[in-house]
Design goal:
alpha+beta; Heat Shock Protein 90; 5-stranded mixed beta sheet; 5 helices; 7 strands; 34% helix; globular
Length: 176
């Protein structure tokens, strides 16, 4: 119940925050997130890899929440007896087909249990779950929070999965 309340509070904060955007070094931010979650990652026998990432104009608190929720999702849905691997990659700039803007294209991929792609939109809805709470703990808010954060950035998040293989989250952050 405490986790649910904390998640709801964080979700509501993203809507109400009066924030100022600043250049954020994504390498530094992800190093800090990885360090903060090191015990959980180690317990899962996991590793996190990321190559050179750009600076992104954003709010450090929200970016931290975004990546912590994506990491928690990967940890929660890791395969038993298989070391978890989370890979963050930067695909460079992508031209937006709708807005005409350019976007930083970042992917977060894991080798967890994956999911059927027919649920790739449902997983972003508040309190939407693909599994029972007896199977996997959680509040059903984490990925909804990720979508809300990306919406606040006027960016996009999408997901692809393959059952038994893993999940891939694509993040498009607008250039400045």
């Amino acid at each position: 119940m405490q986790q649910l309340i904390a998640d709801i509070t964080t979700y509501n904060k993203t809507r109400q925050m009066d924030v100022s955007y600043e250049d954020t070094d994504m390498m530094r931010l992800l190093t800090k997130v990885t360090e903060d979650m090191a015990d959980d990652i180690t317990d899962a026998g996991g590793t996190v890899q990321f190559a050179d990432l750009p600076k992104i104009t954003g709010v450090q608190f929200l970016l931290t929440q975004l990546f912590m929720n994506l990491f928690r999702n990967s940890l929660k849905f890791a395969k038993k007896d298989v070391p978890l691997k989370i890979i963050i990659s930067y695909e460079g700039m992508t031209a937006g087909s709708v807005s005409g803007r350019s976007y930083h294209h970042i992917t977060v991929t894991d080798n967890g249990i994956g999911f059927d792609n027919k649920y790739n939109e449902q997983i972003f809805k508040v309190f939407s779950r693909l599994h029972t709470s007896a199977q996997f703990e959680g509040s059903g808010i984490g990925l909804a929070l990720c979508r809300k954060i990306m919406h606040n950035y006027k960016g996009f998040i999408s997901a692809e999965g393959e059952v038994g293989t893993g999940a891939k989250f694509t993040l498009l952050f607008p250039e400045k």
